[in-house]
Predict the structure.
Amino acid sequence: MYRTLYLLLFLCVAGQAQVTRSAAGPATALAAPKIVNIVNFIRLLEPRDPAITEDVLYQTVVKQVALMRQHRLRGTFLLQYDALMDGRYQSLLRNLPRDSFEIGAWWELPQPLIEKAGLKWRGRYPWDWHANVGFVTGYTPAERERLIDVYMADFKRIFGFYPASVGSWFIDAHSLQYMYDKYHIVASCNCKDQYGTDGYTLWGGYWNQAYYPSRTNSYMPAQHASAQIPVPVFRMLGSDPIRQYDNGLGGSRQGVVTLEPVYKFGGGDSAWVDWFFGSFVSSPDLGFNYTQAGQENSFTWDAMSKGLGIQFPLIARLRDQHKVRVETLATSGRWFREKYPVTPATTFSVGHDVAGSDKRTIWYDSRFYRTNILWEGGRLRIRDIHLFDERFPSVYETAAVDSTDCRFFTLPFVDGYVWSKRDWLAGLRLKAMVDGKAVELEGGDPSFVPMGPSRMRVNWPVKTVPGHFVIDLDEKTLSVQWVGQTKLDWFFELDVAEGADLPFGRIDDSTIACHFEGMNYSVNAKNGSFSKGNLPAVFTIQPTGGRIALDFGGQEAAQAHLFGEGVISTGDYETHPAFSPGGDTLYFLKGLPDANFFSICVSFRKNGKWTAPEVAPFSGRYLDADPFVTKDGKTLYFVSNRPAVEGGAVRPDWDIWKVDIRAKGWGVPVHLDSPINSSGSEYFPTIADNGNLYFGSGREGGKGRSDLYVCRWVNGSYSVPENLGDSVNTADNEYEPFISPDERFLIFMATYPNGLGNADFYISQRVNGVWGKARRLPEPINSDATEWGGKMTRDGRFFFGSSRNKITDNLPRREDMKDFGLRLHSAGNGLGDIYFVDWKEVKF
């Protein structure tokens, strides 16, 4: 059985190629493209207003199509399931030219879809907008997959293809990953940032443009390609970059100032629309700029016709002037994936506001953080900084919720909305000591200058004293420097409203430690220093050498390092390392590429180097695996299919054995009898300091095909194996338990459907004798490859694992036979390698 596990996992990984995409996108006349998607999503009915009939909704879409065709505008229509099943929409959309119109999926879940998937409808109406009924958050991961399969099957039956784009106000990472893996979607979209509107909160995310979501949190941008879902998520509705952020301040929910054509100040106002698109096309951007026009049919044609009549002719004119690209959501998704292997840095800046306002702003987003700087009344305020961390899980990934609301967050460092009141606006204010008093500095209009792929420079002239500030926004850092003939005692001060719930813990010179929604994170000062303030001032940041530089890349995960390259990790199949207590002897497996045979090998550390490995004297004839050395270094446990008795038949399964390690030579391997070994397979024995033996087994009576067990060492013998229970074992498969010497935690490998790769490492912590719910360990412990054979060194400093496959199908240059042969026979060729991670750098 265990050999079968190796083989199945190996074959899964061998067929899984990690695509390395070129950073160069398709040729375009625009240095930083300005992309407009027109996205209209379609519902069959609107239960909130009896005057809005099905025919009113249908005629709205008919007129949207007619107006788009009149102006030759490409666009995307996303169908809710009830509309998908309506013959009128099928006929209307099926006849649209595919080169101009895209048909995709709108992922709200009405009654017909729920019931066709065999689930019970819990809604008040046939379509219910509550988060626990009309959205995926109200259903288990398995139920989400059933709903997706039903929708996709009907969509393909009707249109002859699967949708390439799926949009929703919010959608979970499990569903996105499933849609990508099985149906190959290329783009998604979610709601703009909002707080409490319609019962949905999405706050602190990648503010505009698009990002690759984390595999554990669809709202959180990933920092690494291996931790991301390769489906770009575009932000909807075209938010006002100045006013949307703190609209409705002091109320229970935000107002709306967006490109949506139904709003009188916003997309339905010609002056605002002219200003918005003027800023959009003139903004000196990093990467690209993006906005989404269009409207859901629930608002009706009467409400949106004026606004669309203003917007569509203007968009068409800008297209004809080659100032914008108007394309479908899927086209933008494919372009994004071709151009960006990871989430890029982007900006949206406004150098001139609407008439009568002196406000200026810039939004900067990268895969590590976002920030917004606002100038008002000649004064500068950093009103937002949120950090991104792919290890921050969403609570909606593993279970259904019963709340009618839904909340997605990132990690706040400055929050000018949540920490504000109407009479007190929170933010980092730029101040200086002038004549013995702390005053806010005043200046002129900022200028924005792109300095490279990820760096935007802001120059701000100051009027209080002669000189200017240079603000550099880069992928991981925000830096500010004073440039002037006059010496200036300047600093930033974070002011917040009374009663604000803040995430800050320890504040010292170089670091501010934070805690939010169960996550620890920090911000470091590469230049400058922090000091505590007195409310409403929370802290100040003083420059060092005239410069402040804040590091927001500290959330980046630790690094995994290849172990013993060329000696231990060579390009052969190497896996499952186990060290002697002193760390000077290494036992590990070498196997055939097809995983049909393994032997236990040994290498010694001499004069600071590892010796060439040899097959251990007791191994090499049978299938041997999973070495583990006891704390005294005198016994090695392993598993094998060798005959239980001399002269017997090779076993069809794996059993646990042990062999003495002697000063000179080895003892005779000893088979562990019942109750440890059974008629099923046993594997991966590890032993706590008190003698308790932990192992995996496929024996009868488990919760899944493979469970984890413990045999307690009591009065010189082992007790009957105990199943570790529901916190660890599931109906899926758990393998390879490593128990810490003090039994405080257990690390194991499992093949869960929502993992990063085919098999991942999980950890369960033991409190008061009870095992806690297992959690997946973050990167780089896990990756999109298969992880197995995990163990800690005796001193607890390093975690060792194996099988991090590095297959690629795109190379930076052509290889000749010499180069190709070198890659074939080197570590990282797609077979197993041995890696290690500094455990203190792992945050979970």
